[in-house]
Each structure stands twice: as C-alpha cells, then as structure tokens.
TrEMBL record:
Pfam family, one: tRNA-synt_1e
Top-level taxonomy: Eukaryota, Sar, Alveolata, Apicomplexa, Conoidasida
CDD domains documented for this protein: CysRS_core
One Gene Ontology cellular component: cytoplasm
Source species: Neospora caninum (strain Liverpool)
Protein name stated in the entry: cysteine--tRNA ligase
Length: 671
C-alpha cells in the first residue's frame, strides 16, 4: 500500500485482487488516480457480459470522481490485433482492420446507449506497435525474454527465481495449468516446442502466411495478446498504476502475465496497486456461452429493457442470507387521479409498513461476484419495479411541490413529522449509525465506502423514498414543507446521478427524459394538471368570499385544453351546469394522452427489434426454439411449427423488416 502522507484519504475500502480481499484505497499521488481498464477485442457484437463489466466500472469511476472527488484519468485499450479478429476477417474475406473498426464503432454505440462514459484515453494496439517493440526489447535486455524461431517468449522460470518478483500473484493455483496458459496464446497460437518451458507465453509471434505483420528485430510478426496492455499502459500512465480493471476471467493468465511483463520491463515490483475484477455474468443461472446458446447481445437486451433498468440491475447485484437486499412494494406503485367538484388530487401509494425486503441464502454477491441475468426472471423484474418506484416518486414530489408553492402562502414551522423526515435524510447522507427505522441497513455514504456497495446504498435510498411517500400522503398541500421535500428529492436524485441512473440537473428532478411525441404528451399532461389546479385554487379563494363569488368562479371554468390555446389556463364563458362535463372531458383527455403515450412507446420499442429477433423478443411467450433466421421451430408446448405457419411467419418477418428499416433510416443508420 502506498504511503498515506499527502494523499486524499476518504476511508474507501476496495476488494483488491492483489491483496486477496478488502483494503483501504490510498492513491499513489495526492488525489490523482491513474486507471487502466482492459477494453474489448473487437470482432463481434458486444454482449451482456460486456454490459455487466463496463457499466460496473462506469459506476465505480463515477463514484470516485463525482462523489469522492478523485481526479481520475482512465485509459482503455481496444484490441484490434488478435487471433479471433484475424480468423474472422479471413472467414469473411475482409481486411482485419476494417472488421475491427466496424465492431469498435458498434461497441462504442452500445456503451453510449448504456450511458457509459468515454474513457479519458483510448488506445488501439495497431497504433502502438513501436511501443510494443520497445517494451519487448526492455524485457529481453533485462533477461526475462528470449527469441525462438522468429518469435519472442517471456521466460516465466527466470522471473519466478528472482527475489523481487512473484509470478501468478493473483491466481497462483493456475500457474502450472498448461491448458489455461494455452488459452491465453490464442486460437492461432504457436507450438510449445519453441518454448523453454510449457508455461512461457508469447511476447511477439512470428508471422504466418496470410496474417498481418510488422517489421521487428526478430523478423516479421505481430504482438502477443498480453504485451499489448502492458505497452499501452506504460506509454500513457506512470509506474505504478493506481487501478487496473477487467473481468474476472482475465485474472489468469492475462492479468498475471501483464504484471510479470511490466515488472520485468521496468525491473521493479508492484506494477499495479489495486486490481479490480468484476464477476461473471450468468444467464438463467449458467455462465454465458455461445456453446450453451445463451449468448445475448446488448442490442437484444436494449430492445426489451431500458439502459436505466440494466444499470439498476447491475447496481442491485447483492444477495446475502444475513443482509436485506431490495426494498420493494408487493404491488407496483401507481398514480391515483381523483377529480372532485373543487379540484384535483394526485397521489401515489406509499410503501406499506410491511414492505418486503428481498433476501436469499447463499454467498454474497456484488460488483466483484457473479451476476445472474434472466430476461423473464425475478432479478430483472426487481430492476423494473425499482425503476418504476423512482419514476413514480419524482412525479409525486413534483405534483406536491406545485401544491405547496409559493412557500410565502403557507406556514413553514416544522412539526414532528417534518423533523422525523429530515432525520432520515441526514442519516442517509452522513456517516452515522444506522437508524432502527432504516432496519439497520447501511446508510448511503457508509455503503459506498464499503467496496462500492451500491445495493445497500439503494436500500437506504428506497427507505428514504418510502418515508417521504408516507409523509406526503398524510398531508394536504398546505401542510407540506416544500423546501424540505425538495431537499430530500434532490438528494435522492443526486445519488442516482452519481450512479449514472439519471443525467439531468437535480433542480429539475426529471427522472424520465422524454423526447419527441412522448415529451409533447408529457407536456400536455403537465399543463392539464396545472390547469385544473389553478381552477381549484380559484374556487378555494372564492369560497372564502361567499357563494356569490363561487358562482362567478364557476362561470370561468376552463374553456380550452392547455394544448389548444396559449392563453391563460382559466378561460371564460362556461355556465355552472357545464362544469362537471368540463371536468369529465379533462379526465378523458388525461387518460387518452396517457394511453396514446404508452402505445407510442410500445410501437417505438417494437420498431427497434431486429427482424431476426422478431419472434424471439416480441413473441417469446409462444415459442420454444428458433432457427438461424429467427423463425420459430416449435411452440412452447413442444409441438412443431407447420409449413403453413412457417410461411405466415416469414411474411410477418418481411413486413417487420420494412418497419425496422424505416426506424434505422430515421436515426441515420442502415440495415
């Protein structure tokens, strides 16, 4: 661990693979954090395993920079020279860099769709060949590498014999596993007869006919897989790195070999202070694998769920037999619109006192352990429910704030309920002992410092949200303390913004960022609520002045819907007998706008589904198996699809393809 003097110390504890457990995070210099993250090998579509890894580290990076105030420089590589890329380019008859650039672009498009921030620096292997050669020469010069038949290998046995280096530091049990070593050599790897020891690995691979190659002191060839990251990190970031990150499957041999190379080239120990490894992604309880046919691309997932729901799934990933997991109501939170003679009330059901806290037996899970994803399973439904609860909460708060402002019109002296709610807010924000009201869950700040425990942080935020819902539903507009409610909502929104769940400013509390027709519908509904609210206030004021004034107010009922006129929401000319009819029309308009917005959103989601996934995604409840074109082969009952049914399905896919192509064209893309 680096010395603590002169460093920004926040009390953050992280699970460090270099130490085999949680240790205090101490940066190498001041508040600066130099971070290298392993990027993708770009030869195919990005999948949910990528989403899990890069969303996870995006959350951690946001916490470190936006919450803990570290100055983070993050470098991420793009592996565009690799056996898989070369093999795929030969199969498809295209240049390897053309293939790599295509899938690199797709990868960054997927990351943008998931709201993952760009790294500070992007490095491509193809652009760092001179740096790769230089690093290999330093390794050979220091006695840790050797040339053999035009290739160069790392001498693991010489490295292991030194006093200042440890080979296989993070996974020593795998050091002598030749099968694991060969996995890291790639599909086009060389024979072990060229090596001094079976566990030595390639730094530079002699070129074979038809493969891309570059000149080197040892002849034509290309970089080995492991040397790429060491060379690019060495050229951008100082020695030692504060953080190196990647998926757990890279720990050995890739990351252990990176450590060995970098320490050998610099002839110094401890190249990385903190190694962070995200856990595997499991699909339906099994590790994702093409051979198991449970391979799910990011685009496929986004055709069914929002980026926010996927991020919430990653944030929620922790289960323990001892600790509460997710606070959810038994039923989804719903709006209740109640129109009455003198106005409109908008409310949201609060979480009941016995709201269930999910728990399960088994090992703890977190960002650094496996995550289970099942499109139709409980974990994804939990993410959807949590997303809905936050959405409803901010809508309720904004409605109540409209009722309780301007503050100059209402009494502001706090009562017992106000003090109790503020106590829960402060307990969530500060480093304090957990309250009994919070069921002994870790408060937000403490949870974050405990190895980025976002599940516990979300639990605390949900308890605070539940307490606020209860507060709001027990009070009328004049009893609500608007400044206090705004502070609570802004804090919850701020923390969701830290986690990357939302992006807008806290002042707006815009949990859902509407666009296009959806935004227009939302604006119409917002104006409608304001219109009826204004009318209600007019009747209230007039009532205090006697029935004559009330009758005058009734004659000034809304003349037009907010969308039909830019004039004041309170029109003129309607008689008392028409008032109820006017309110009925208002209710009908509101419901119609909601239905239309929901229908439009559903159609928009359907248009985004690729034709090959039409039946898999939109009719998954009807069919069990599919062919390569995405056409169903069997029904859920196991009954095979008839030839007649198949012909009809092909016509449906053809029809949907036109719709999908229109959607792509509207976004400036091509099928």
């Amino acid at each position: 661990m680096p010395a603590k003097e002169g460093k920004l110390l926040t009390g953050l504890m992280v699970n460090n693979s270099m130490a085999g457990g949680k240790v205090e995070f101490v940066p190498q210099k001041g508040n600066r954090v130099c971070w290298y993250g392993c990027g993708p090998t770009v030869y195919d579509a990005s999948h949910m395993g990528h989403a899990r890894t890069y969303v996870t580290f995006d959350v951690i990076r946001r916490i470190m920079s936006d919450y803990l105030n570290y100055d983070v420089t993050m470098c991420m590589n793009i592996t565009d020279i690799d056996d898989k890329i070369i093999k795929r380019s030969i199969e498809q008859g295209v240049d390897f860099l053309t293939l790599a650039r295509h899938w690199e672009k797709e990868f960054f498009n997927d990351m943008a769709a998931l709201n993952v921030r760009l790294p500070s620096v992007v490095t491509r292997v193809s652009e760092y060949i001179p740096e790769v050669l230089s690093l290999i020469e330093r390794i050979v010069k220091n006695g840790y590498g050797y040339e053999s038949q035009g290739s160069v290998y790392f001498d693991t046995q010489t490295f292991r014999k030194t006093d200042k280096h440890i080979y296989g530091r993070m996974e020593p049990s795998s050091v002598s596993d030749e099968s694991r070593v060969l996995e890291g050599e790639g599909e086009l790897g060389l024979t072990s007869s060229e090596k001094r020891h079976p566990c030595d690995f390639a730094l530079w691979k002699k070129a074979k006919e038809g493969e891309p190659s570059w000149d080197s002191p040892w002849g034509k060839g290309r970089p080995g897989w492991h040397i790429e990251c060491s060379a690019m990190a060495d050229s951008i970031l100082p020695f030692p790195l504060d953080i190196h990150s990647g998926g757990i499957d890279l720990r050995f041999p890739h990351h252990d070999n990176e450590l060995a190379q970098s320490e050998a080239a610099n002839d110094r120990p401890q190249w990385v202070n903190y190694f962070l490894h995200s856990g595997h992604l499991h699909i339906h309880g099994a590790k994702m694998s093409k051979s198991l046919k449970n391979f799910i691309t990011i685009k496929e997932c986004l055709s069914r769920f929002t980026a926010r729901q996927i991020r919430l799934l990653c944030l929620m990933n922790r289960v323990s037999s001892q600790e509460p997991h997710l606070l959810l109501p038994e039923k989804p939170l719903t709006f209740t619109f109640s129109f009455a003679f003198v106005g409109v009330a908008v409310s949201v059901a609060s979480l009941p006192p016995d709201a269930r806290v999910h728990s399960a037996t088994g090992p703890k899970e977190g960002w650094d352990s496996f995550m289970n994803y099942s499109p139709d399973g409980e974990t994804m439904q939990q993410a959807i429910d949590v997303d809905r609860s936050f959405d409803n909460f901010f809508a309720l708060v904004k409605a109540k704030l409209r009722d309780a402002t301007p503050v100059s019109d209402y009494a502001q002296k706090w009562g017992a309920d106000d003090f109790a709610l503020n106590e829960q807010l402060q307990s969530a924000k500060e480093q304090a002992s957990p309250l009994e009201e919070l069921r002994n869950c870790d408060v937000v700040h403490k949870a974050i410092l405990d190895n980025f425990s976002t599940p516990e942080a979300l639990v605390a935020l949900q308890h605070l949200m539940s307490a606020t819902n209860s507060y709001l539903n027990q009070k009328t507009g004049e009893d609500v303390k608007a400044p206090l409610i705004k502070e609570v909502a802004k804090y919850i929104f701020h923390m969701l913004k830290i986690f990357g769940v939302v992006e807008d400013d806290e002042e707006d509390l815009a949990y859902v960022k509407a666009q296009g027709s959806t935004a227009a519908a939302a604006a119409e509904i917002e104006g409608l609520v304001e219109c009826v609210g204004a009318f209600r206030e007019l009747v209230r004021t007039s009532a205090s002045q006697g029935m004559r004034a009330v009758n005058q107010a009734l004659k000034r009922a809304p003349e037009k819907s907010p969308g039909e006129s830019d004039a004041s929401p309170i029109g003129a000319g309607e008689a008392e007998g028409e008032l109820l009819q006017s309110l009925s029309v208002t209710m009908s308009t509101l419901l119609q706008a909601c239905d239309e917005a929901e229908l439009q959103a559903k159609k928009e989601r359907e248009r985004q589904v690729p034709p090959a996934d039409y039946f898999r995604v939109l009719h998954a409840d009807l069919y069990a198996t599919f062919d390569e074109q995405g056409v169903p082969l069997t029904l859920k009952s196991g009954e095979p699809v008839s030839k007649t049914q198949r012909q009809k399905m092909l016509k449906q896919i053809e029809k949907h393809q036109k719709v999908h192509e229109q959607w792509l064209a509207s976004r400036g893309q091509h099928a």
